[in-house]
User: What shape does this take?
Amino acid sequence: MIIVSVDDHIIEPPEMFDAHVPKSLKTKAPKMVTEDDGSQVWIFEDRKVANVGLNAVAGRRREEYGCEPTSLNQMRKGAYNVSARVDDMNANGIVASLNFGTFVSFDGSFFLDAKDKKTAHEIVKAYNDWHIDEWCGSYPGRFIPLAILPLWDIALVVDEIKRVVKKGCHAIAFSDNPSVKGLPSIHNAYWEPLWRVCQENGVVVNCHIGTGRVSPHASLDSPIDAWIASMPFSIAYSAADWLQLKALQRYPDLTIALSEGGIGWVPYFLERADFTFEHHHRWTRADFDGLKPSDVFRQHFLTCFIDDKFGVKNRHHIGVDRICYECDYPHSDSVWPKSPEYLADSFKGVPDDEVDKITHGNACKAYRFDPFSTLGREDCMVGALRAEAAHVDTTPASFGAKNTPAQGRRGVVTSRDVIELFKRNDGRST
Assistant: This one.
């Protein structure tokens, strides 16, 4: 088996901007500092991002999962160190990975609120240079680069996409609903240059769950499991909106990735979309240029899953060419270091050619990524990678967590417990 993950996460290291920010802006660049209580925070302008390692709990005992860590020493080194990350990828049999940022937000929207937009623009470029040249560039063939954008200025957005494409980057992070960030909706003509430049350069628009419409807590008293269970398919609300995007008809190669959204819900969603169109289009005036909504979905959207046996079983109702794998390292939904075992269980009875598409072929095609030319196909296989990781300890460990939702209480952890912990750790409500 060969596995490429289209959704993992970086906990940005403190030195990331050192070699990439112009000297004149060194004092203005984001900085990681350690608070009196040992927690580490990012400071930019007058803003503080206190939760440095949101949910980066891979390798912990599951009793210690939660909203930690608040410092780098409370997580596996692979969360923030690229060499250790490759070790952990090898231990999990993952040949390549696409990594979303953390303190910059999964859609890169952190800098939208910057007071000095000129400086923020330079910081965005520095972030991309670090991510592409340093993080991804340190291990050719192992990472699919992902750029963030200066979203407040569409001309700068287009320029930055063209710049990173020259560096070999064919993926951008974007909100699944930019209107909730104070930006124009995806249906606004403001974004037309973005769709055009992505079409012309084969750039995938990656919409991570939680970047627009966040899965709601049913109540403060609800067990937190209710919220966790609903998170993946919360992106279905935004998928319904993206499916109506007229730009998809103008740009036939434009690709939207529904990152960390799962796949099991997709067959019913497409059935419902087709029914809605057939039943209502005469008065709603919806128009898919002679196609059904499900046809448009299978032409333009990528989906991915961590563990989704129902979705794999119903893969032909989704479109085998539109499904990818995700590991979600180092977050708590990740099954690291047992991704191959989970996949093997899901793929029982699935033909090898379809397994290859889902585990790596679709991702490599969509992101214009070829690990084999650099590494050789044999060395990309799970067995070969794990052989390189014999020294990596994957035993679940205690990181001395002192601020987990379950600590100091009995009974079921509720939404209230987690929200309060987010407020303490992050300074922001969920």
Observations:
- Residues 117-136 form the longest helix (20 residues).
- The chain has one domain: 3-426.
- The two ends are 38 Å apart (CA to CA).
